[in-house]
Amino acid sequence: MIHNYKEMHKIRCYQKEDKEELIKLIQLNIPTYFEESEENDFAEYLEKYKEDYFVIKDKSTNQIVGCGGINYFFDESIPLARISWDIIHPNFQGQGIGKQLLLHRINHIKNKGIKLIVVRTSQLAYKFYQKAGFELEKTEKDFWAKGFDLYQMKMNL
Known about the structure:
By secondary structure, the chain is α+β, with helices and mostly antiparallel strands. Helix content is about 30%, strand content about 35%.
């Protein structure tokens, strides 16, 4: 069955009340996509470092099925935005939800006049970003944690 995801899922800005549900989302993705210690890093990010952060909800259940953010670096030689902390509920992966959330953020970034987007991900998810048009810049073994390598990618707008 093919779904129209714009009708099935709604993207909105993160609210503090979402934090507990988002912590459960990352827990569901440990150890497949995140190392256990990253749960605390994510909680700290939500408290101190998030700039623009979005959640995507299933309209029929009102459940948050994904989330992802953007951080901005205007003081760089070329102002850039960084895609951050993408997490999709395991039961909803591979259904286009991550793509919808990524495209929403790319459009949000374009509206700010930024011409470069960077994403720092792992070997487990880099192909998702590659399919969306990001190019691999560099890799670093065991960057996030043992067995979780850095794959830094960029997209010029």
